[in-house]
Amino acid sequence: MNINDILSVENLTMRFGGIVAVNNLSFTAERGKITALIGPNGAGKTTVFNCITGFYKPTSGTIKLRHSDGEWRLERLNDFRISKIAKVARTFQNIRLFPGMTALENLMVAQHNTLMRASGFTLLGLFGVPSYRAAEKAAIDLARYWLDQIGLLERADDAAGNLPYGDQRRLEIARAMCTEPALLCLDEPAAGLNARESAALNELLLKIRAEHGTSILLIEHDMSVVMQISDHINVLDYGVKIADGTPQQIRDNPKVIAAYLGADEEEAIAVMEGET
Ligand SMILES: Nc1ncnc2c1ncn2[C@@H]1O[C@H](COP(=O)(O)OP(=O)(O)OP(=O)(O)O)[C@@H](O)[C@H]1O
C-alpha cells in the first residue's frame, strides 16, 4: 500500500454460488482524490462497494484502509464498525432518504450516534445538561452547513420527499458528509439526473474534494460526470479490471472502448464523451 493511498483492494474475489462477480481484483484509491469504478452493467462494481462497506464478506482478498485515525482490514469488520470507526460512508443506487422527515432532520439522523453518546444514551439529554445541548447545537450547525453547501438551506424545513430529484440526490451526499467520513463511496449519484443537475453534482463533489480533502470512490455510468471530475479511473468487465488510468487515458484506450459497451467503436466513443 502506497503512502498516499487511503484504500488498497488486493486480490478481491466475491462468488455467489457459481457466479464470480469480482475476480481477483486489485486497485488503490489515493487520499484526497476522486477514484472512479466504471464498467458495463453487471461488471461487479456494486459488489466491490458492498465488500468495502461490509455488506458482503468477500470470498477472498484483503481491503486495507488507512487514514489519520488508524489502519484497518475492512474485510474483517462489520458494516457498523466500518462506518463508525473506519469512517467509510456510502450512498446507494436508489435514494434512501426518510421522505416524510425534513431535509434538516435527515441530516440530524445521520448524527444520531454522536448525539446518543452526548446524551449519555438518553438520560443527560432528558435533563438537557449543557454538554448535551452543546452537542445538539454542533449537530444542527453541521447539518445547516451541509444544507448551505448543497444550496438547500432555504428548504431545511421541507419534507425531503417533496424536494426535486436532483436535490434529494445531493441531500443524500450531504447526509453522508455529516458523518465526517474519510472515504465517501457513491454508487451512481448521477443516476436519473438531467444535465443541469449533473453539473451541480460535479460542482459539489469537486468542492468536497477541494475544501474537505475527503477521498471519494465513485461508481458512475454518466461519463459527463466520470470524465470531468475523476483523478483516476478503474474499468471493470466481468469482475476483472481491464484498464486503469486518467480520464484521458481511459477515453483513448481501445480495450475500454471495445469492452465497455460491447458496441461498435463510434457508438462507444460517443458514450465515453458523454454525448448520449
Ligand atoms: N447478492 C447476489 N447474489 C447473487 N448474485 C449477485 C448478487 N449481487 C450481485 N450478483 C451478481 O454479481 C454480478 C455483478 O453485479 P453488480 O451489481 O456488482 O454489478 P454492477 O457492475 O454494479 O452492475 P450495475 O452497473 O448494473 O449496477 C452480476 O452478475 C449480479 O447478478
TrEMBL record:
GO MF annotation terms: ATP binding; ATP hydrolysis activity; L-isoleucine transmembrane transporter activity; L-phenylalanine transmembrane transporter activity; L-valine transmembrane transporter activity
UniProt KW Amino-acid biosynthesis keyword: no
Record has NAD as a keyword: no
Keyword terms: Amino-acid transport, ATP-binding, Nucleotide-binding, Transport
Limits of the ABC transporter domain: 7-263
Gene Ontology terms: biological process: D-alanine transmembrane transport; L-alanine transport; L-isoleucine import across plasma membrane; L-valine import across plasma membrane
GO CC aspect terms: plasma membrane
Family matches, as InterPro entries: AAA+_ATPase (IPR003593), ABC_AA/LPS_Transport (IPR051120), ABC_transporter-like_ATP-bd (IPR003439), BCA_ABC_TP_C (IPR032823), P-loop_NTPase (IPR027417)
Annotated TM spans: none
SUPFAM superfamilies found in the cross-reference section: P-loop containing nucleoside triphosphate hydrolases (SSF52540)
Summary of the function given for this chain in its UniProt record: Involved in beta-(1-->2)glucan export. Transmembrane domains (TMD) form a pore in the inner membrane and the ATP-binding domain (NBD) is responsible for energy generation.
Family: Belongs to the ABC transporter superfamily.
Protein name in UniProt: ABC transporter ATP-binding protein
Organism (species): Tardiphaga robiniae
